[in-house]
What we know:
Shape: globular
Number of helices: 6
Radius of gyration: 18 Å
Number of strands: 13
Largest sheet: 8 strands, mixed
Helix content: 10-25%
Amino acid sequence: MTYPDIPHGQAIDRETARSAAALLLAGRASQQPMARLPDAIRPHGLAAALAIQREVIAQQSDAVAGWKCALPSKDKLVLAPIFARTVFRGSTCTVEPEQGRALVEPEIAFVLGADLPARAAAYTPAEIDAAVGSCHMALELVQQRYAGDAEVGFLDQLADGLLNQGLFLGPVIDRVAAYQCMTMTIRFELPEQTQSLAGVHPNELPQRPLYWLVNYLSQSGVDLSAGQAIITGTYAGLIEMPLATPIQLHYQGLGQCGLTIEARSR
């Protein structure tokens, strides 16, 4: 499998990346919409955005419990960390709401059952498949942290984690069915309405971005560890869900689960 050769642009020095990351983390802690980074430390290329993202990871007191990703395009790399305290299992998860609603994206998660340490040689799909311990229903939890008038672009979002604010990790689903899941009907059942969506994976098969991510991180010197969850693209775009409301989530032919999304206490 080959991927486009994407120019990363000019790197930035460590101190600049540290300063930018500190501002982004302060913005998260404030729980208020953020202004765009000052131009002197704002990312103007992929290398700079990824350097800031790495510093966000380094300055966190939380471990990386997973990653979001998609296949690269001619000018974009889609990858961002998911932190441990924002991963929810069971029947309840919490979010920073957007205008009183939760923003979610339905996905399939691959949870590693074995480590994939960084190495010089590329991992084969068979090696990556062998390291996958389980496949799960999942919802990416989404948050637009920048203010609406901040005039940010993709690189600003990449530096800040591409709108990720966490992951709801649902029940285990059949591995063979997950690997073949190009399309599926997704149904959100609420007490007073049902929303049915025709789901299509943006990269055809959900494991294709997984293969890319493992090797991209490996070549970048980043180890992946057993227990980390990797999501690879939404089947149905961004969906608004009510808070404090029982939801039955159905993935046709794969599984179902119940959950309630609550607003994070401040």
